[in-house]
Amino acid sequence: MGYDRERFVGYVNEGLLCCVCRDVLRRPLQAPCEHAFCSACISSWLLHHHTCPEDRQPLDVGSLKPLYRYMRNDLNRLQIRCVNAGQGCETVCSLENLHTHEEECDFAFLSCSNSGCPAQVERRGLEAHLSECNFCSRECPNGCGHTLLSTEMSQHNCVAELRSEVEMLRVEMLCKVEEVRREMESRLDSQRRHMVQKESQLKNEVEEVKSQLSRVICDVRALLGAERLRRQELAEIELEKRELLELLRDLHPVRNQQSDDQLGRDHLKEDRQTFGWQATFQPLRHQRREDSLNLPSVSLHSSQALNGPGCPPSPQSGESARKSGTQSVTLDCIKKKSREVTVI
């Protein structure tokens, strides 16, 4: 809103009036169409309209600009009465100096600076009011440190005030201590629950480790037992192998003797063929054949296997056949044991 036209002394040009409120311009702004407005008036107008209020041409806030300098000078030279003219101020000043005068005008009403006082006092009578104001506060003259109002000065008791203050501090301290105690209890409870959970978790882990350890111990014992059995079997196989080797070593002379006997028989056969032994020893041959019929069937078959179909059986040939069979069985056992040792 602009300045009231009734406050001005003398003639006011129509170009210095607001096109909205029709009062003298306050903080003026100018449109591109050269119409002037109060800043508050044109801002309120443009909230609901987008045209100039005078000629209805398009207008927005961004197109507004300050008033021309010669118009500002004419506006500042206008003579205006003080806003406190109703209280008795007769000052008339230029519009340019109005703000400075109003800050120093003795007829301006001010609020009392005392807390709680609702009085509105003129600037020229403010000091007198503050000296008599009932809401004026000052420190206790006895030195208790309390700030008292003028009405409370006669009823003030320093000891009672200090006691009440100490009691308030004690109650406040007790409340704080209780709050801290509750907070500590809640923290301890949470920590206790956490520790119980951790303890149960650790117990479960220990039990699991124990079960795993027991399984490992059982597995190790089983492996040790299997290893012990394997070593026993290896020891037994080694012992049998040694026995078989000793038996084989004992059988080597028998094989050499059999080879010598076979060689002698071959030479004898050649001699007999040379000198015609068949006619000479024919009765003896029949006699040996009759004796061989009386031997067991096992000896007969063994001698026939050793001597062949054309040779007469003899006790030495039966013993040789038995030893040869034993040697073949022994060799088979040695081969079998060797294969078992290799597999193990």
Automatic annotation (TrEMBL):
Gene3D superfamilies: Zinc/RING finger domain, C3HC4 (zinc finger). Residues 316-328 have a biased composition (Polar residues). The keyword Transferase does not apply. Keywords: Coiled coil, Metal-binding, Zinc, Zinc-finger. A zinc finger (TRAF-type) spans 100-144. Residues 181-250 form a coiled coil. GO terms for molecular function: zinc ion binding. Residues 18-56 form the RING-type domain. Residues 300-328 are annotated as: Disordered. Residues 100-144 form the TRAF-type domain. PROSITE patterns: ZF_RING_1, ZF_RING_2, ZF_TRAF. Pfam families: zf-C3HC4_2, zf-TRAF. The keyword Flavoprotein does not apply. Transmembrane segments: none annotated. PANTHER family: TNF RECEPTOR ASSOCIATED FACTOR, TNF RECEPTOR-ASSOCIATED FACTOR 4. This is Ring finger protein 41, like. It comes from Hippocampus comes.
